[in-house]
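Handoff note, outgoing to incoming analyst
You'll be picking up this chain. Sequence as last confirmed:
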Amino acid sequence: MCDRMKNTVLIFFIFILAQGSSVRAQASVEKRVGKLETRVGKVEERVGNLEETRGTAPGTSDQESLKVQPLTVTLISKKQVIGSGVVAIKLILEFKNLTSYAINGFSGTLVFKPEAGDIYTRKMAYSHPVESGDTAQIEMTIGSSQTKQYLKFVKAKAVKVVLINQKLF
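Most recent structure output, in case you need it:
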């Protein structure tokens, strides 16, 4: 019986000790959770302030929130020109001023992307006034010494044109 009593007392002390460490661990966890809740509250407050400042919630996107380039480019026509030892493409491009003010000119890099073809780039500048909402038609000739790429460009039914690195005067 003595051994049985010793075992019971031993189990009782182990149980008491386990209860104490469990209570201390629970208090530690509750303290950490409390700190985390405080930090989350502060973050939510900052996000709320940012939403009020910007007027929209983060992650929402609509057409107005996207950055709009001040000029758009449309390809009006393209025609192959052969003469006096030159083989080239004559392009007529239309540039539209999307700003709310008149500009005295612009510069940038035109990027041409024919369907199933390579990308061509060409720097350009235009120094005539364009009123807000108005368009300017520009005629330019592009030649190439790379015959295969040039022919793909000539044969392409659709060519996308974009003006990048736009600078307004």
